[in-house]
Amino acid sequence: MREFLLGNEAIARGAWEAGVKFVSGYPGTPSTEIIETLATRFPETNPRWSTNEKVAFEEGMGAAIGGLRTLVTMKHVGLNVAADAFMVFPYSGTNGGFVVISADDPGMHSSQNEQDNRYLARVAKVPVLEPSDAQECHDFMIAGLELSEQFRSPVMLRTTTRLAHHKGLVEVGERADVPPREFIRDPQRFSVPIYRLIRRPEVEKTLTAFAEYAETCPFNRIEEGADDKIGVVTSGISYQYVKEVLPDAGILRLGMTFPLPANLLRDFCAKYETVYVVEEGEPFIEEFMRGAGITNLTGKELFGVIGEYSPGRLRKTLGLGAPPEPFTNDGVNLIMRPPMFCVGCGHRTVFAALRQLRVTVSGDIGCYTMGALHPYEAEHTTFAMGSSIGVAVGLEQAGHENTVAIIGDSTFIHAGIPPLIDAVYNRSRLTLIILDNSTTGMTGSQPNPVSGKDVMGQQAPQIDLEALCRASGVENVAIVDTWDRKEVVNVIRRAVSFKGPAVVIARGPCQQIPEIKHSHRIPFFIHEDLCTQCDACFKVWCPAITRAPQNFPVIAANECTSCTVCAQVCPTDAIKLAEETA
Amino acid sequence: MKTYNLMFAGVGGQGSLLIAELTSLAAVNAGYDTKQTEVHGVSQRGGSVETHVRFGEKVHSPIVTPGEADAVVGLEKLEALRFAHYLNIETGTVLVNDHELVPGSVPNAESIYPRETIDFLKSKGMRVVALPASQTARDLGDARMANVVMLGALSTLLPIEQEVWEKTLKLRIPAKYLDGNLKAFESGYDAMQKAI
To answer: Touching check for B171 and chain A: CB below 8 Å?
Structure first.
């Protein structure tokens, strides 16, 4: 049977078919749909959202050495968080099959950097599989678990945005019954630090075995060329672009990109006059080939390291015709349409307050990075998950004493607690705003420990953020309704002027949480008799408020979430609940 | 057979992803190899959304190359303009919903929003069909169905039988919205027949 599946759905389907019995991960574009699919369609795989990628990875390690086939999912930067465990796992090796997804984001569609995690895998000495389409996302998921058990090693399945977020036809199968393997207490294997000197040679033995396997493995495939002029070495989605642009070229498609097959590469390249190495991201394959003494190749100096590849880009690079460009400089103003806070988003009042208070703001990872943009321009640094707090503490040391750190609830739970304790311990007078919308918003409303729900939508223990901050040593903790705009300003002002660490929890649920989104709300309505067209409501920057032909503001009734903020700013009280005006 | 290349453009929340998916599923149901991919920014709503669909005997890249699209379907005029360079100018058609959404996240957007999209694209030698899909959908009772009106219009340009479209809509659209959407599809189909 064939299904039309997203790359991520195909991975989920493969994991289910392979008999996976434990799945953990943290939401991150472009990996999120894997666990979402498992939760909605394949709950037998026992999926969960963990608090962060390190925790997810460690839970997965435990499940795998305990004997279960295991999948752990994360985006590329998530693997940085999990790296401590990732680097040491090969020293013990696994028991049940263990695959970690690294979903890389060439083009940085939804990421802060463009790191190529094949390098991290090489540092960790973990083999890497790279599928080229949705079918292979499914097939390599299954094969990766088998390989992991065969070599007793963790395996990385590396996807990229275009693979994870494209749909194609996938031949699917049924779920296999894979009984758990027995866990035998074996400290010489699993207590790595004590027995590291015994384990270290084992890592090299496994890697050598993988390198031999790579020479003949089914993941690497040769397609003969029409002649001996051009050969192409490629991997991942780039393979598809090569098939479009150079249909007659000989191709070595590498489905396993670490370890790489030196002999296979040498033999392939010897058959062609020129070899192009077409790989998105860094010159990972190319550097290996040069190291293996191959000289008739052209790679990054031609194709570049930045951004996504495409058939058009390859065609242009190879001088086969440049596709037309957008009408940017053609007598027409092709204005951008940057993303913005949703209708009813509770972050709006907080950024309006921060702009008004003119404080320096150290931001974090979430929808609220948009606080740096027009019209707020009230976020001045942003780096990585949880960085807001440490950076604010550092800025304070550099003389910027009124720096405010701002972080969402999910990101705070993920990486904000150790730096908050650090701020208290090191006598910072940090002000921390936690935007508590009780979900992981930017990746599409995944529940987290403050949501009171788990990945299956079932009730779950709910972490009390206020008690957590107090227990971390912050005495000044205030909670404010995020849609009460005056109170938001007052509470933040008081926290900033406080001579010690202070936390403001700006609370109100994300309007994209499905139950909230589909709940019945009475919209607001602008009474034209009372409206003086002062435009104060436009300064709320709510996408539901637009201008009617007679210049009156108008609220889209089917979009209004009844958050009340526009009614709060109206000086003539012209904005009323639709019912009142009826 | 040739491979069909389609580009769908709209604003987050307009449902361009849904009509791209319906097109893909119809192509799958008609027996074609099909690939689809979308590009959207960090937020859930309000940004540009582009979706690529390709179908034929054997499809490799999910990405459409600029200059090769058989149709560019714009659910909003500025977004049609943004992706119009994807059109195969010799053989393709720009289908545009005659509807403007001024970006809220750009300073002075109302005064700098390009108003002459359709004339501009025609001046570039493109075949442009503008349909009042939002108005049609509103008249049918739900402005959100503008996307399916445009899908009905697109269906006239593709080698997929009407029964397959109907079957695809029935499989994908929830029962309580199905009747309205079938009507929206038909309206788009009829409007396109009249326009060409």
So the answer is: no
Residues A543 and A510 in one domain: no
Q: Is A299 within the bounds of a domain?
A: yes
Residues of A in contact with B72 (CB under 8 A): none
How confident is the model at residue A365, as a pLDDT? 97
Indicate if the pLDDT at residue A389 is higher than 70.
yes
Chain B residue with minimal CA distance to A543?
B104
Q: Which ipTM did the prediction report?
A: 0.96
Q: Could you tell me which chain B residue has the CA closest to the CA of A316?
A: B65
pLDDT at position B105 is 72
* Residue with the two structure tokens 């019995």: A21
Strands of the A502-507 sheet, one edge to the other? A361-362, A404-408, A431-436, A502-507, A476-481
- Judge whether A34 lies within some domain: yes
B43·A373 Cβ contact <8 A: no
Q: Is B78 on the interface with A (CB under 8 A)?
A: yes
Where do we find the tokens 């097109």?
B23
Q: Which residues contact A205 (CB under 8 A, 6 or more apart)?
A: none
Beta carbons of A337 and B105 less than 8 Å apart: yes
Total domains present in chain A: 4
CATH of the domain at A160: 3.40.50.970
CA A403 – CA A395 distance, rounded (Å):
7
- Best interface-test mutation with A: which of B65, B81, B144, B171 has the largest number of A CBs within 10 A? B65
**Does B67 fall in a domain?**
yes
C-alpha radius of gyration, chain A, whole number = 27
Note whether B63 contacts A310, CB cutoff 8 Å.
yes
A66 and A168 in a common domain: yes
Which residue on chain B is closest to A366 by alpha carbon?
Answer: B42
pLDDT at A274 over 80: yes
State the average pLDDT over residues A414-424. Answer: 98
Q: Do A340 and B47 touch (CB under 8 A)?
A: yes
Domain that holds residue B128: 4-100+113-195
* Domain shared by A205 and A276, yes or no: no
Does residue A438 share a domain with residue A370?
A: yes
Asked whether residue A86 is domain-assigned, the answer is yes
| Partner-chain contact B107 A165, CB within 8 Å | no
Q: Which residues of chain B are within 8 Å of residue A551 when distances are taken between CB atoms?
A: none
Report how far residue A1's alpha carbon sits from residue B35's, in angstroms, rounded to the nearest whole number: 17
- Inter-chain contact B60–A244, Cβ cutoff 8 Å? yes
Query: What CATH number is given to the structural domain containing B8?
Result: 3.40.920.10
Return all residues near A519 (Cβ < 8 A) that are at least 6 apart: none
- Determine whether the interchain pair B61/A109 forms a contact, defined as Cβ–Cβ distance below 8 Å: no
Q: Enumerate residues 6 to 65 of chain B having a beta carbon within 8 A of any beta carbon in chain A.
A: 11-12, 21, 24-25, 28, 33-48, 59-63, 65
pLDDT of the residue at A29:
95
pLDDT band at A178 (very low <50, low <70, confident <90, very high): very high
In a domain, A342, yes or no: no
Average pLDDT for A517-544:
94
Which residues constitute the domain of residue A130? Answer: 2-216
Q: What mean pLDDT comes out for the span B17-43?
A: 91
Secondary structure of residue B147 in the 3-state scheme: helix
Domain count across chain B: 1
Q: How many other β-carbons are positioned within 10 Å of the β-carbon of residue A297?
A: 18
**Which chain B residues are Cβ-neighbours of A441 within 8 angstroms?**
44
Side-chain half-sphere of A136: how many Cα atoms within 13 Å? 22
- Do A61 and A44 share a domain, yes or no? yes
The answer to whether residues A446 and A32 touch, using CB atoms and an 8 Å cutoff, is: yes
Share of chain A above pLDDT 70, in %: 99
Q: Across the interface, do B67 and A324 touch by the CB < 8 Å criterion? A: yes
Is the link from the previous residue into A375 a cis peptide, with omega within 30 of 0?
yes
User: Do A187 and A233 sit in the same domain of this protein?
Assistant: no
**Pair A155, A273 in one domain:** no
- Out of A270, A298, A317, a domain closes at A317
Average pLDDT in the B23-37 region?
98
Residue where a domain terminates, one of A461, A495, A516: A516
Cα A361 to Cα A555: distance, rounded to the nearest angstrom: 31
Is the domain of A203 the same as that of A225? no
Best mutation target, B54, B60, B79, to test chain A (most A CBs within 10 A): B60
